[in-house]
Each structure stands twice: as C-alpha cells, then as structure tokens.
Write a structure and sequence with these properties.
The chain is mainly alpha-helical. The chain contains 11 helices and no strands. The protein is globular and about 65 Å long. The protein starts with 6 loop residues before the first helix and ends with a helix.
C-alpha cells in the first residue's frame, strides 16, 4: 500500500505545477491556518487551509466543500493570489518606498494582504499611504477591525469629524507595518517547519536526477 503523500510534498508539487513560489505558498498556509492546526480554521465565515470565504471562492471558481483538501485549496489560493497581484507597478513602487519587499525579506506579505483584503482593498490601502484618501469606506473599516481596535478607540479616531488626510495616511501605514512585523514571525515559523520537513519529504534530496548523478560521477 502506497504511503500517503506528505503535506510538504503536496505543496511543493502544487507550487511547481502552478509556477508559484513555494516559500510564498508555505508562508500563506502558515498565516491563514497555522498549517491546518488553528482551532478556528473551521469556524465563522472563513474556512479551511487557506481560509476561503464565499466571495473569494466564487471569484476563482472554488467549491468551499474542498476547503479542507490541501491540494485543491492550495491551487485555488495560488489562482487567487496571481489574480490579485497581477499588474501593480505603482503599488510596487509605493511598497518599495515603505520598505516592503514582497520577494525579499517580506516574501509573500502582499500576496497575504491581497488574500485577506481582496485586490481592491489591498490596492486601496497601498494608495492611501500616499493619497490619504480611502477609495472605499469599507476599506478603512476593515483595517480598524483587523487591527483589533475597540469600539471606543474607533469612535475616538473620528470624535471630531471625518479623519484627516494625515490620519488616513498614518492608518494605512500603521496597518502595513503591523502586518510586516506580524508576518515576519509567521514567516520565521514557516521556515523552521520547512527545514524540519526537507530531509524526510524532499525525495530529490535522496534520489537526485539521473543526469545530475551521471555528471557528478563522470
């Protein structure tokens, strides 16, 4: 009887087949469901390995009944990530000015924010760091909820009327900095897990490509 394919190898294979960065996929899985171990991963409006909700699932034609199937949900998450982060040169410029490198130290952070806020919300947050004007009131509300502010704190932020341009700039930047710091810890956790899995699951480590072996042996 064939042994069950490990989570590590499932995601490694899916990332290769979908031409997606393996590290980004592992990081996203870690943030969203603690690699399938978060006790809240099957509660509320967002479920499964990559915490899909109804709208996001519909956006990529994903059946929520497959949310607990690692391979299927990973493929859907990759599809959504590619769609959400496609063609965003101005946003990349702004992120660089804020010290956020989606392919460097913060690998996959923007993919995660896009997964969390949707493409429109993510772009709105990024542009607000410069413009000071949210394109949608719901984006600002989502940020306040995400940061875990109390109702009193939220009210105090608007106590003297609508927030100023600088208020909005600060809020958008603080949100990005909050997730930059939190994501760093999640990414470190993901890297530790990946290292623990490599020798046991990466079969190429034990069975290198035949051509490579022949070349090495002369």
């Amino acid at each position: 009887m064939a042994s069950k394919e490990s989570d590590y190898n499932i995601l490694k294979r899916v990332a290769e087949e979908e031409s997606y960065d393996f590290d980004k996929l592992i990081n996203l899985w870690t943030v969203e469901s603690s690699r399938g171990t978060d006790p809240n991963w099957d509660k509320g409006d967002y479920i499964g390995h990559f915490q899909f909700g109804t709208l996001a699932a519909k956006d990529v034609g994903f059946n929520l009944s497959d949310a607990y199937d690692l391979e299927k949900s990973a493929r859907a998450a990759i599809k959504l990530s590619k769609k959400n982060t496609k063609d965003m040169p101005n946003s990349s410029r702004i992120l660089k000015s804020l010290g956020i490198d989606n392919d460097g130290d913060e690998k996959g952070l923007i993919d995660y924010i896009a997964h969390q806020q949707g493409r429109a919300g993510m772009l709105d947050i990024i542009s607000t760091t410069e413009s000071g004007k949210f394109g949608s009131a719901s984006t600002r509300s989502n940020i306040l909820d995400n940061l875990g502010l109390s109702d009193i704190q939220k009210k105090e932020m608007d106590i003297i009327g609508p927030p100023t341009v600088q208020d909005n700039k600060n809020l958008a930047k603080n949100y990005l900095n909050f997730w930059k710091a939190r994501y760093k810890d999640k990414k470190a956790n993901a890297e530790q897990w990946k290292k623990s899995q490599v020798k046991n699951n990466d079969t190429s480590f034990f069975f290198p490509d035949e051509n490579v072996m022949n070349e090495a042996l002369g």
